[in-house]
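Long-time lurker, first post. I've been practising inverse folding by hand and with some scripts of my own, and I keep getting stuck on stretches where the structure tokens seem ambiguous. Below is the full token string for one chain I'm working on. Before anyone asks, I'm not after the true native sequence, just a reasonable design that respects the backbone. If someone could post their per-position residues I'd love to compare against what I wrote down in my notebook.
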């Protein structure tokens, strides 16, 4: 069966709905933004720092932005691989409405190709897109979010940057309805689209995967500098930011390099920057043994020399993941897996000493 591609913002959809082409497989595409049209019907995609050069039918590194019928389109617009309600701590976000639930969506594809990918079934293997994904409009998602008890919403699971147009359309509708939006991202995005989405996204969790350019390239196929730029741009915006660093034994756990990363965070993002150390387990193309718990604890000690809020993830309930007041040591937030209880705070301050705690918290 022939496949026909129709860009969704054209006006000739009636032709395809008339029945005269009923024996064709119709794929309705959504025109993408952030690109430069080049001679010879070529396009340079300017959404992420890869800036892929695209020709007819050839996708970029993300596998979902492609030229069809002379237009750059987003093939995963509105095509979701998952929609679920999660604890917000699962993002992970520990200082952004802790203890709350968050409605979350994801699609397929990624603009990084991490050898240790934790969700390779949707980010690296996109063949399921045509047959198994459910299509939603932005309005569908907004209406579902309004009905959901959670008043928080996350773009997550796979990399949201590569379904940017859908994320933007949904976030715009949700903001009008008073629903707070979160983006869980690898941070590999150009400054202009990031600037335009920031007003609609109140909370970010950014993966900072390595702190050496050559290792970033080798392990992810992407670069370090644009991710650092994203961290600084989000910080300057005033929106909430948390960072996740997956500790891989023998790859990014050297104390010297780790200290350099912590110095950068301290100097450019501040001592109050929330920082998550996540324990590696074998996945995808990597079969190294899991990160030793003792290494996680050692790196936490190093990080806490310059950062007030450092948390360990994927380490089990025996490792403390509570929030403590950096001034007086009072227990502020108690966590047991994804059960979270605020015990020592009043609004955003420590009940004991009155220190203002960095983050977004519901009024108590």
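-- Answer (accepted) --
I ran through it position by position. Result:
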């Amino acid at each position: 069966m022939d496949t026909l591609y129709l860009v969704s913002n054209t006006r000739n959809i009636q032709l395809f709905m008339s029945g005269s082409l009923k024996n064709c497989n119709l794929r309705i595409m959504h025109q993408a933004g952030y690109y430069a049209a080049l001679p010879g019907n070529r396009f340079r995609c300017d959404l992420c720092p890869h800036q892929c050069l695209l020709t007819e039918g050839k996708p970029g590194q993300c596998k979902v932005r492609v030229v069809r019928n002379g237009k750059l389109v987003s093939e995963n617009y509105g095509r979701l691989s998952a929609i679920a309600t999660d604890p917000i701590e699962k993002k992970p976000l520990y200082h952004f409405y802790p203890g709350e639930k968050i409605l979350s969506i994801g699609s397929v594809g990624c603009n990084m190709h991490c050898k240790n990918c934790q969700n390779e079934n949707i980010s690296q293997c996109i063949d399921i897109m045509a047959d198994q994904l459910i299509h939603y409009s932005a309005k569908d998602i907004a209406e579902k979010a309004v009905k959901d008890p959670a008043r928080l919403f996350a773009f997550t699971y796979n990399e949201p940057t590569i379904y940017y147009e859908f994320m933007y359309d949904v976030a715009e509708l949700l903001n009008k309805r008073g629903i707070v939006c979160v983006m869980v991202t690898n941070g590999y995005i150009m400054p202009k689209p990031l600037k335009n989405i920031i007003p609609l996204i109140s909370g970010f969790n950014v993966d900072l995967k390595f702190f050496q350019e050559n290792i970033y390239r080798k392990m992810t196929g992407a670069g370090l500098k644009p991710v650092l730029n994203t961290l600084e741009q989000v910080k300057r915006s005033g929106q909430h930011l948390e960072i996740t660093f997956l500790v891989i034994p023998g790859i990014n756990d050297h104390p010297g390099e780790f200290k350099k990363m912590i110095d950068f965070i301290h100097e450019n993002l501040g001592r109050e920057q929330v920082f998550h150390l996540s324990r590696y387990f074998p996945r995808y193309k990597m079969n190294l043994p899991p990160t030793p718990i003792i290494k996680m604890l050692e790196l936490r000690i190093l990080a806490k020399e310059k950062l007030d809020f450092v948390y360990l993830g994927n380490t089990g309930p025996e490792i403390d993941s509570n929030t403590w007041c950096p001034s007086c040591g009072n227990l502020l937030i108690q966590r047991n897996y994804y059960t979270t209880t605020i015990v020592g705070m009043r609004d955003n301050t420590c009940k004991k000493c009155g220190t203002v705690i960095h983050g977004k918290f519901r009024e108590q």
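A couple of notes from the structure itself: Residues 1-6, 9-26 have pLDDT under 50 and may be disordered. The first strand starts at residue 3 and ends at 7. Happy to go over any region you disagree with.
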